[in-house]
Design brief:
- The protein contains 28 helices and five strands.
- It has 736 residues and is mainly alpha-helical.
- The protein has a five-stranded mixed beta sheet with strand order 2-1-3-5-4, sandwiched between helices.
- Helix 2 runs antiparallel to helix 6, helix 6 packs parallel to helix 19 and helix 14 crosses helix 15.
Length: 736
């Protein structure tokens, strides 16, 4: 810490070195958290993995990001990330880890980029702390270890940030264009979510550039126009292509990319209006949970490796969502109640908010004495950039009607940047006895430690009392000692400052490791002792690694006599070791409990965590293959979750008639009749889920088909993998 007082000299010295030796262990930590044992995730997020399998088969599927090899329907996101995943699978072979690898590398790249961005202006120590904070933010490795989009999105936005900073330093308009074009590329990863950073880009460029207002407006207008052109380029090509020559745009109601961007993947996330049938009203929570989005349904498709507890079959069949700890779930999927303190509520705070109090004190220190009209220093300008990134995104998550925990990775860069820059700034103010500013450091340490105790308190039965008490006690002691020794200057004080930062990063580091320790969830990644459940809240009560999420659901063709209900989504039931970590002992004696050998199998064996339906029914597959007489589709089913594992397993077309959730208005009865007459499909697997807007089609299938006896295709093994489709029925239709 003593080097912080001479950060300018330190930076110059560091710049002369080819490698910052302090950065090496930080990168190694990030590599470990993002890469270690990703090879155990065989299916990853099966919905997206199936798309990669399909995209490998033809350029047509590749360009449109088709979910199925037959080019029937696309996935619910634009294609750029999946293009990258497909290229990775082409190079390394089609595996779960090969589709995860690009996101894992993006997570590591984000750590490096943040180091570069912060170091240049705030000093080398600020860059190191920022990089370490980014690496240890729990939701960052949790997301980066999956084939979800957000890790790559954040990396792309940080690349755009680097370009913008370079544009200001070099005064070259080309870099401004490049920065905004990169946001356009990010739009083609996750649509409107990429635009969350635009306030920061506009504010920073206006404040940081020394050109006339006329030029600022002209340059920003031109750059914005380019960004919009790049953003809609793929959408325009797709929407202008005849509908019969391309797949249906999945999760849209009008077969339009632009509608998908501004509706389903846009405004609906803010309003919480997740209607998928074209109506404008908000759906009840239960309907939202089943149809809102790909990630929504994948919450119910909790980790296939999380197993069913011994008394789970006795659980209530009520469909009301509950929190993993058995309490009422106030927000969908553990996202809490909208309000100014939402990010401090359980389920969100342990993913992203560990350092937020310290960040708030850092912001106060960094902007202390700043005048509205300037002039601004380079540090103040870049602080303004990170603040303009942090605040709008934080406000969105505080009021949004619908999102998932892993979206919070969007907050990681500004929080980490302020943690690094603030650590150096507050330390300097503390050492220089800058009046009231010198109290910001001990105050920040004290309040941050207090919040971390609050964050960990719901997990006392899982992690024990010791780490909670340790963080609280050490935080108070170090803050008080620093306050008492404020007037002294010696090496002891320096060590106290280092110790304080170690204490504040200790539990985020542990939380960041939980997807490795306990197993992750590739559909809804979240960190924490219950990370494999995908709920990311207080400890889940499920204890068997086959099913930690919802019970009563089986894959097509399976049968389980122990299931307490059919075709119903249910939360985890209580168990004899309620509140414990999977496999944990009921006697923790204040010590942090590690997983037992039974639960640690998550880390040592292949995890088919692409959904409860990540196992195919071999008997069903054999029957369909044997009786296929040249039909294009192996079979048709209501939704993508039933289809995905069969696409992954065989590479053959399987028709998800209603798209992801089964509610897309893709098929009509007349169109289906035509497909059957042409010999494109004859087998239909139907369950009680996923009807949505295709009820007429489902009714027609049932009325005009013959039911295949279950003895010919249905597995009777009670050990079958759990799945989302329940005990459905197989039908055959042939029309002349």
């Amino acid at each position: 810490m003593k080097h912080m007082n001479s950060e300018v000299k330190e930076e110059r010295t560091s710049n002369k070195k080819r490698i910052d030796l302090f950065l090496v262990p930080i990168v190694l930590i990030a590599a470990f958290l993002n890469l270690f044992k990703i090879w155990t995730d065989e299916y990853a997020n099966a919905y997206y993995t199936a798309a990669v399998k399909s995209m490998l088969q033809s350029f047509h599927n590749f360009f449109y990001a088709s979910f199925d090899p037959g080019g029937y329907v696309t996935i619910d996101k634009p294609p750029v990330v999946f293009w990258i995943q497909t290229i990775s699978a082409k190079i390394f072979g089609f595996h779960g880890w090969s589709v995860i690898l690009p996101q894992a590398l993006a997570g590591i790249g984000s750590v490096l980029l943040l180091y570069v961005l912060v170091k240049r202006t705030f000093g080398v120590w600020a860059g190191r702390f920022a990089a370490l904070a980014m690496a240890l933010t729990p939701i960052v490795p949790a997301v980066s270890r999956t084939n979800n989009i957000d890790s790559m999105l954040v990396f792309t936005l940080l690349v755009a940030t680097w370009m913008l900073f370079r544009a200001v330093r070099t005064a070259k308009f080309g870099w401004v264009l490049a920065a905004f074009a990169m946001i356009g590329v990010a739009f083609n990863m996750k649509m409107l979510q990429a635009y969350m950073v635009l306030p920061a880009f506009y504010v920073f460029y206006v404040v940081a550039t020394k050109i006339t207002w006329k030029k600022k407006i002209a340059f920003l207008t031109t750059a914005t126009a380019l960004m919009l052109a790049v953003s809609v380029s793929w959408a325009v090509v797709v929407d202008s292509t005849s509908a019969d020559k391309r797949p249906y745009m999945g999760s849209s109601q009008t077969n339009s990319v632009l509608e998908l961007a501004f509706g389903y993947n846009g405004i609906n996330r803010l309003t919480g209006n997740t209607s998928v049938t074209g109506s404008s009203h908000k759906q009840p929570a239960q309907a939202q949970q089943q149809t809102a989005s790909s990630e929504t349904k994948q919450t119910s498709n909790s980790n296939a490796e999380s197993s069913q507890s011994s008394n789970q079959s006795k659980s209530s069949s009520s469909q009301k969502m509950q929190a993993p700890d058995g309490g009422n779930q106030n927000g969908m999927f553990n996202t809490g109640n909208p309000g100014p303190f939402r990010l401090f509520q359980k389920g969100l705070s342990d993913q992203i908010s560990w350092l937020l109090p310290f960040v708030i004190f850092s912001i106060v220190g960094l902007f202390a004495g700043v005048k509205f009209k300037g002039p601004y220093t380079a540090k103040q300008k870049e602080s303004l950039f990170w603040l303009a990134w942090l605040l709008p995104v934080a406000v969105f998550f505080s009021i949004a009607g619908f999102f998932h925990q892993y979206y919070l990775i969007m907050l990681a860069p500004p929080i980490a940047a302020f943690a690094g820059a603030g650590a150096v700034a507050l330390w300097s103010m503390y050492k220089q006895h800058n009046g009231w500013k010198s109290w910001l450091l001990p105050s920040g340490i004290l309040t941050t430690a207090a919040l971390q105790v609050y964050i960990m308190s719901p997990y006392v039965s899982s992690i024990g009392v010791a780490p909670i008490a340790g963080v609280g006690a050490l935080g108070v002691i170090l803050a008080l000692v620093l306050a008492i020794r404020k007037e002294r200057k010696n090496s002891v004080t320096n060590y106290l400052g280092v110790a304080a930062m170690v204490v504040l990063l200790a539990m985020p580091a542990y939380w960041a490791m939980t997807p490795i320790i306990y197993g992750g969830n590739s559909m809804l990644p979240a960190a924490g002792p219950d990370s494999s459940s995908g709920m990311g809240g207080p400890p889940s009560t499920a204890t068997n690694s086959k099913q930690s999420g919802f019970n009563g659901m089986q894959p097509p063709g399976s049968s389980d006599s122990n299931s307490s209900s059919n075709n119903q989504m249910q939360p985890p039931s209580g168990s004899s070791n309620s509140g414990q970590m999977p496999g944990g002992s009921s006697k923790n004696n204040g010590q942090m409990q590690m997983p037992s050998s039974s639960s640690s199998k998550l880390s040592s064996s292949k995890r088919k965590s692409g959904g409860m339906n990540a196992e195919v029914n071999t008997k069903l597959l054999n029957y369909l293959t044997k009786n296929n007489t040249g039909e294009k589709y192996l079979f048709a089913t209501t939704d993508s979750t039933s289809a995905a594992p069969y696409i992954i397993k065989t590479g053959k077309p399987v028709m998800a008639m209603g798209g992801f959730s089964g509610s897309d208005p893709i098929l009509t009865v007349s169109k289906l009749k035509s497909m059957i007459k042409k010999g494109e499909v004859k087998y239909f697997y139907l369950s009680g889920m996923g009807k949505g807007g295709q009820s007429d089609v489902i009714t027609w299938i049932k009325e005009n088909s013959k039911e295949i006896p279950s003895s010919k295709w249905q597995s009777t093994s009670s050990s079958s993998q759990q799945g989302p489709s329940g005990n459905g029925t197989l039908y055959e239709i042939t029309l002349k």
